[in-house]
Write the structure tokens for this entry.
Amino acid sequence: MSSMLVEASVDFSGRSILIIEDEALIAMEMQEAVEAAGGTVLGPVPSVQEAMALISAGRAIDAAILDIRLTDGISIAVAQRLKSSGVPLIFVTGYDGWHMPDDLEDVPVYQKPNDPENVVRVLFDTWRRVRT
């Protein structure tokens, strides 16, 4: 992975990024890309239940990367909870058979397979737009 590219264009220093992904290799690659951009990773967590528990624990979440289809269901309720709290997020999925609820239509969707560095750049752009 070319972390120099991520470091040069994205700075998540001091920011906590939640990763919700049930595929271990993809979660690890996302974690490496977030850390290369200076971010601290919360998770990764592989399920809706674990994501909701982490959110309920009250830890600060600055942005989130969510797979749509997880080990115990679809992450739409997690996304809605994060978005209603003002947390910028993006979806990363290989799943085509889903319908996005109206309140999440503005959330970027990145199709798998993907480049984790690009995902982090898209998340950073989304985070920057929400924060300005």
Notes: Residues 1-8 have pLDDT under 50 and may be disordered. The chain is about 40% helix and 20% strand. The chain has one domain: 3-93+103-131.
